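Human:
Focus on the backbone:
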Amino acid sequence: MAMYNKIALVIIICFSIFSCNPLKKIESTKSVADEAFGKKEYSQAYTLYNNLINSYQKNNITIPAKTYLNAAESAVQMNNTSHSVELFESALKQEISIRGIKGLVNSYIKESKYEKIEEVLKQYESFLVENNESGYVKNLRFENEVSKGNQEGILSTYTNLEAPAEEQSMIYISTLEGLGRKKEAVEFCSEMIKKNPDYLKAREYKAIYYYNFAEEWYKNEMAKYNKDKNYTAYVYLKRELKKISANYRVAKVEFEALHKAKPTDKKYIKYLKNTYIRLEMKNEAADMDKLLK
């Protein structure tokens, strides 16, 4: 009987020790937190990870980098970017990772802390490049200059992009235009369209540029002619109209491509109608007019 009592006492003591074991509690909290994170239940995960991190710290246990990362990403989902920054930084102190660097950068982007982004790039650029993320670095530098509105910075970082997207190219074009380099912008746009005929934003930019250029020129020449209608002025007008028509034809090609891609877009229909009128393409202009009714 006494032996049974001793065994029961040992079992009770072991159970007590086991149930009060902080490591066991930590592992249990971590398991539940990870499960919530995996299910994208970020509010619950965020609370659990905060409790977990406090438990690690109280027990002087090294906090796994993954725990910091999961907690940081949960904080992002809770729109607590200031805390996410702190957590991503802690994760990177434990272990440098692509996930940690990109998470930290994204948090700084949300807080519009562009100088901090540049600091992160300087600190981790070599690691990113070594891990085949050079394109990410170049894209980030470009986007950082865009966010700051630094026109010269946009131009210099754009040239380093490995495979610029249409949106990035359009930013480059608008920056050239903003710096008074409109002709260069249009020439660049034309070259881009040759390589990427499906870039509709670029085609629209080119079409509108040539249409407006021709339209302004046409109105100026007509105004001059109407002030003094004579044979010499008429001959001069006919010569200029021929040059102007060449610009309308460039616009026509682009607007036709845009209309084909977006046949219900009335903006392109209107432009095409007016372009056809200027080029004396009456039947085509009438067809566009029907589409506007």
